[in-house]
Amino acid sequence: MARAVVIGGDAAGATAAVRIKDSVPDAEVVVLEKGSWTSYSACGIPYLVAGDVEQADALVARSPAEHRERGLVVRLHTTATAIDREGRVVHTMDAETGETGSEPYDVLVYATGAHPRTPPVEGLDQFGVPVHTLDEGVALRDRLVARDISHVAVLGAGYIGIELAEALAQRGLSATLIDRGEEVMRTLDADMAALIRERVIELGIDVRLGEEVAGVEREGDRCRAVRTRRVGSGGDGDGAEAEPVRAEVVVIALGSRPRVDLARDAGLAIGPSGAVAVDERMRTDDERIWAVGDCAESRHLLTGRGANVQLGTHANKHGKVAGLDAAAFLTGSGRGEAVFPGVVGSAVTRLCGLEIGRTGLTEREATAAGVDHRAVVVEGTIRSGYMPDAGWARVKLLAEPGTGRVLGGQIVGNGPVAKRIDVVAVWCHVGTTVQEAQMMDLSYAPPFGGAWDLWQVAARKAVGQLGLSPAL
Amino acid sequence: MARAVVIGGDAAGATAAVRIKDSVPDAEVVVLEKGSWTSYSACGIPYLVAGDVEQADALVARSPAEHRERGLVVRLHTTATAIDREGRVVHTMDAETGETGSEPYDVLVYATGAHPRTPPVEGLDQFGVPVHTLDEGVALRDRLVARDISHVAVLGAGYIGIELAEALAQRGLSATLIDRGEEVMRTLDADMAALIRERVIELGIDVRLGEEVAGVEREGDRCRAVRTRRVGSGGDGDGAEAEPVRAEVVVIALGSRPRVDLARDAGLAIGPSGAVAVDERMRTDDERIWAVGDCAESRHLLTGRGANVQLGTHANKHGKVAGLDAAAFLTGSGRGEAVFPGVVGSAVTRLCGLEIGRTGLTEREATAAGVDHRAVVVEGTIRSGYMPDAGWARVKLLAEPGTGRVLGGQIVGNGPVAKRIDVVAVWCHVGTTVQEAQMMDLSYAPPFGGAWDLWQVAARKAVGQLGLSPAL
To answer: How far apart are CA A342 and CA A129, in angstroms?
Structure first.
């Protein structure tokens, strides 16, 4: 009997497992999951911490029991410790009993996810709370309802850090955001991110930029404050200690790195992004091993380079593509029919009453990738200017000089604008130019903007600034 | 000195006039406008009637005075009565004084708009109120605040009719919608439109489908009721009188026909849609005459046929394209640099708390145009299912058997979903297939849906139903 082993039971791994089982019903499909949940929405964790979502299992799309009903073998609290490629065996350990075991495979799906970045600062190992897994989210939520917490420091002012700080503020706690950067939300350009920082501060959240954590101040066996030091552009302030940040809990939201240790130890190729290198069917350089989700590399369609974008959308698609390819391998029917085309970097979020979207390249990313670009910024209303509560939005559009090809977009507004980024995502996918974009039949009615969509106003501006034709 | 004459001072005409003046500053540009406003948002009229917008001039993007400041000659209350192509003269009449005149031209832009369809029913000429121009919108609004109105009949259950009925209900009036069709909103397929009818009825608006106006009942010099008769599929009920609809005012919202009489009298070609035929630079078959806006034909990119879509988005683009081409003609520099690529039929609206979007072809339209298609319908939530107020949305996606090319989409939901139609609009523009669509990097976060965008869920379903590959 064919045997598939999947390391990791969250979105990517579980999707691949289900796809293999559905395609090859008589295969034994074993999912190894180190935690206690499967197929959950990691993106929902901040809403759990905020109390918007009350039950942790509401975030679970498919429980271990449901997966078992569909015929999967699910081993919880089971860590993979090594991959023996020659012997086609995954070595495992039960996290609770310490018991070791082994899982032979014909095909292996590597879906180990990512691990949170934690600064090597004394005390953080004890008092730092990562919020990466559902187990950790539940632990933080339970910790916050304890009476003795009034101040929380959040390390990292990316979207998860801000979401959590907002959640803490919503619970009536004092929150301080600490970030090394000069601006919050490095996934946006600084001019767009500044709009968000203003709102974060308005919510009463303290924002400490250009600082990094230097240590933890204790009071008995408890955390009392976080010490920080200034980082900077080489000026005098570098390394200088700043005012300590009062905090009984330190939340770590510094992003996460693809978890590739097992893969690297087994000699699988790692891509330039630091994630496991795969082909367009998510197969590694071992024909029996696929990598999917946060630990796997995707091709960025605008730079042509490997990229590691840790999002549930990609995890789900990776899982389907890998599952089909692994199933085809098991049945000897060549390669799977689906390929993963790559990513353009789309992301949306809602923070502090603002909606935010981005796709393609930011100016910072384009510069880093050596992609020639021109950016235009347009401000406008969300609804027609004469409507009550017309709202405001700022959009930024990047285009390539010479060709006018759309390279990326960013949008921030105080109403429902985030999903409008998808128009630019499609433009990036198919190679639309600003000249074409400005003439497309995008929808309009007074509750939704002006007769020229904001993206088209930006496209027209880009056409003009780049000296392209037709300039309307 | 070069002389341009523009018949019609609303979005399309005024945009063309401005574009000509900007391109050829020493040209004399004369705008003939039969009403008292220029460059206003006709789409905003229902919000004026509803009282959301209080001042009529809020709907005016650029007043006659502003146009004059930019160097245009604007003649209000001036009707064009004939076009003498040989003599290159437009004959005019002052609507107030009856004085006639003539305007010689080197180039002429025909932007006469559309005129409301009015059934040839005795009494409607006296009591029927069209709501097509801003003047008419103001008149209706002023009429409604009079004390003696309690019941209003609205002829036509398209989006303008429903918007007006909702506006009337909002003002505390009893409104009855009367439509010949079997369902409201013929711009959507009946299964989608049914969702809107349910909400219209919930708002207390009476809906009379399958009926048409047959007459008006008077009480002295006032209207008391509208008589209707049943129309149908040839059954017994045809022509039978139905219960009269009590109404002191009868609003006519039966759509409008392109106003082509002057053009036809002048021998200009009329297209299959009934609008003035133009090339892709909006030029008619007379090299000195362009037609733009509601009176002009556009190419429908999915049927390849001429289409008459009366929307401000197209009017604005038409005006720019024609203005550039007319300016190029005046300066002897060949053709204008811009072309109007055509329309895909995008439209959005908000009715009775629902947001609605459509683009491409509906099933009804595809069938009428002989376009082979398959439709899939998907229902889901607007936000992730575990979020508070997850909302609901229904989407419908049409694709071409064999190729999988996206042919159209419709969306209805009880939250901010209308502008999501633009993704499908772009797909229709560029010829994306459902196989490609399902793998695109569309954005996701819990406040905005699931990890698979609803359009992608629909695309996957279409791939499966059409037997295409890759089936995920």
So the answer is: 33
